[in-house]
Amino acid sequence: MKAGFDVGSTLIKVVWQEDNHWQFDSTAHQPLDVLLRNLQRKQITQLHITGIGLNYLPLINGFELRKRKGDVIMAELLNQVAGVNYLLAQQGKSHIQDYLLVSIGTGTSYTRVRGASVRKFPLGNALAGGFLYGMSKFLGYNRYTDFLNIAKEGKLENVELLLKDKIAETASKPEGNLLVAHLAKAQPHSSKSDVQMGFLNMIAISAIRDIVLIDLVPEFSGFKQVVCIGSSIENDNPLKSLLIHYQDFIQKELVFVQHGAYANALGAYHLESNDMDKIE
Question: Model pTM greater than 0.85?
Fold first, then answer.
């Protein structure tokens, strides 16, 4: 049996099939050694490796390791797009074939997909999940989920400086909610939940701004849908809600793919032997 194995900068994610059903797991749920033992108990012997966290490879023993041929970054990109397209088809969205792929992981990357054409935007964004994870540790949280659960209770208007705060006559107009400065209204007595929601808002607005700017670049423009994936926007994560809140600013349809965080591993899983090299 085989598994797709995505070795990321922060998390390792793995997918495999069991009784014709997809199984998903990651080091967000248990340490790497426990994850590997679980795969061995499932009689998985071959791992299709993808991702850039190659420093983890010496820790992976007892499996046959294979990876897509070619440059590691391009291989990851092709695996990710293949996985996204598979998930779109499985979720009744196979008509989406011309889109901007926004992957919010440790950092955020942008990829223009037109059918079989895949082109990575040269600039990503370092303000993403890694920033949130680091801030959660700095603020003393042992579990990242605790950081998110408290952030959900936050109110942005308590800490974010909006245009209506400076120009009162815009209060009843849409532009009144435009952001002037992140966390500019924060005070020593501001609640953790408000400030943490402000951190999430920094990432959401940063991604929305990037999408608008990318659409101005001729060779990347013309997309109607923006497909969003990543652990940072899975399930009911408040970052997902913020992106939806700003959707009208980009005049694009935001598409969220269930299990999108596992797209890279899923693309690697589907690789055939002649498309891969063995890792010695």
Answer: yes
Provide the strand spans (E) within 84-207: 98-104, 108-114, 117-120, 161-162, 179-181
- 213 plus 141 within the same structural domain: yes
- Tens of each residue's pLDDT in the chain, 280 residues: 999 999 888 889 999 999 889 999 998 888 888 999 999 999 999 999 998 776 677 778 889 888 898 888 888 899 999 999 999 999 999 999 999 999 998 899 999 999 989 999 999 999 999 999 999 999 999 888 899 999 999 999 999 998 998 998 888 887 788 889 999 999 999 999 999 999 999 999 999 999 999 999 999 999 999 999 998 888 668 899 999 988 888 889 999 999 999 999 999 999 888 787 888 7
Structure tokens at 94: 């196979």
Residue 75 phi/psi, 5° resolution? -60, -45
Task: State the CATH number of the domain containing residue 83.
Answer: 3.30.420.40
Residue type, 94: S
DSSP 95: T
Regarding whether 77 and 142 lie in a shared domain, the answer is no
Phi-psi region of 214 (alpha: psi -120 to 50; beta: other; left: phi over 0): alpha
